[in-house]
Specification:
Blueprint (H helix, E strand, L loop, with lengths): L1 H12 L9 E6 H4 L14 H14 L5 E7 L10 H12 L4 E3 L5 H9 L3 E2 L13 H4 L4 E5 L6 E4 L14 H6 L2 E4 L33 E3 L2 E3 L8 E5 L3 E8 L2 E9 L4 E4 L8 E2 L6 H6 L5 E6 L2 E6 L5 E4 L10 E3 L4 E3 L5 E5 L2 E4 L29
Parallel strand pairs: 1-2, 1-4, 2-3, 4-5, 13-14
Antiparallel strand pairs: 5-6, 7-10, 8-9, 11-12, 11-21, 13-15, 15-16, 16-19, 17-18, 17-20, 20-21
The structure holds zinc ion (ZN).
Zinc ion binds next to loops.
Length: about 375
């Protein structure tokens, strides 16, 4: 059983991040793992994080949604977790996938404020509504994960709705995210690495500057939430684009395109960082789509798509699904993607900016808990 739980934790690992471009909600890991009423199991269990992530995916009707987890460092030594779970959370912390803090304080709400994300929490936040007015003014910005018939469901703190709602990043967040930041603490997993900055050689984690978390603002000063040190300004944050793969009407995965790192998409592209489509394709699509099918690059702010396949692709200008509008993209041909354009590798298999991908398929998401032993996710009746 331990082995299966390890596999679930590996799957969950792909769904936690501190990347402002990919995170879709904020939560406090220490709080979530103690929602004993979700499964009637142990006092603390990291599998509950998977249950809440699945609930978020169901609610957003999108696969592979990622969450921004803030957590008190006490979790790293929480005796109610197994040693394996503690080890995994420590690894997530070391890799900068979760934000481990000596004193999380209001950091969860600060992150939600700076990034415009919904908060998944049962805490009432009564004293904080003045500082974060969206808690009351925007129904759905704070939702409580509670037990439901087929797993956790959300109930909005205000208005009683069931869907987590994002807002705009706050003006302070927009300013902070326009720059890249450096922590003077060696090996900082949040603000080290990438960009070749003064401390890049000391960083354990090679984090792309475009994916840096939002600094904490303390008396208006950008501060490392982990180390409490004033952050150095590393210059403008490099440009990046969030793109998404849609298969069968459903966004399956979002990814970030940077100038440094082209992204290869295909049935099973070689190398790391590629987007593997094979798991979502039927037999005909598998035969049509090459192992490496499409290369995406960010050049001077333009998203450039190059077909590297055997059979070619098509571009749907402005997302138009009319066959007359489809522009063939022959093997080895490149094209700059205009606003709203999407590349179609095969009918129903598309790549584009996530806001512009058409929706409307019956929703049947993959569960992050697919490997979970049934004993571990026994649901209350
Ligand atoms: Zn730091």
């Amino acid at each position: 059983m331990r082995f299966e739980i390890s596999k679930v934790l590996d799957a969950i690992e792909g769904r936690v991040c501190t990347d402002p471009q990919l995170a879709r909600a904020v939560l406090d890991l220490a709080e979530i793992i103690r929602y004993q009423d979700l499964d009637g199991g142990r006092p603390a269990s990291t599998l509950r994080l998977g249950m809440v992530i699945d609930a978020l995916a169901r609610s957003m009707e999108e696969d592979s949604v990622q969450v921004y987890a803030v957590v008190h460092r006490g979790v790293l030594s929480d005796a109610d977790l197994t040693s394996n779970e503690r080890m995994v959370v420590r690894r997530w912390a070391d890799d900068g996938l979760v934000e481990v803090l000596d004193n999380p304080g209001d950091r969860m709400l600060e992150v939600a404020d700076l990034l415009g994300l919904p908060v998944l929490s049962r805490v009432r936040f009564d004293g904080l509504r003045g500082r974060f007015p969206w808690l009351v003014e925007q129904p759905g910005r704070a939702v409580a994960p509670v037990p439901g018939a087929g797993g956790p469901v959300f109930i909005a703190h205000v208005g009683g709705g069931h869907t987590p709602v994002a807002g705009p990043p706050s003006p302070a967040g927009a300013k902070l995210l326009a720059r890249q930041w450096r922590c003077s603490e060696s090996g900082c997993s949040l603000f080290g690495g990438g960009g070749g900055g003064a401390f890049a050689d000391l960083a354990r984690v090679d984090r792309a500057p475009s994916g840096q978390p939002p600094p904490s603002l303390r008396n208006g000063v950008p501060t490392c939430p982990r180390h409490g040190t004033r952050l150095g300004d590393g210059g403008p944050r490099p440009r990046s684009e969030v793109l998404a793969v849609r298969v069968g009407g459903l966004i399956r995965r979002r990814f970030v395109l940077t100038a440094e790192q082209p992204v290869m998409i295909g049935r099973a592209p070689d190398g790391s960082g590629g987007i593997v489509l094979g798991q979502w394709l039927n037999d005909e699509a598998r035969r049509w789509i090459s192992r490496s099918h499409l290369r995406l690059e960010l050049r001077g702010g333009d998203v450039v798509a190059t077909d590297v396949s055997t059979n070619g692709s098509g571009v749907r200008p402005g997302g138009s699904m009319a066959e007359a509008d489809r522009i063939p993209l022959a093997p080895q041909q490149s094209r700059i993607l205009g606003t709203g354009d999407m590349v179609e590798l095969y009918p129903g298999v598309q790549v584009g900016r996530p806001g512009e991908l058409p929706t409307g398929a019956p929703y049947n998401p993959d569960s992050v808990m697919a490997e979970a032993p049934t004993m571990a996710i026994r649901l209350p009746r």
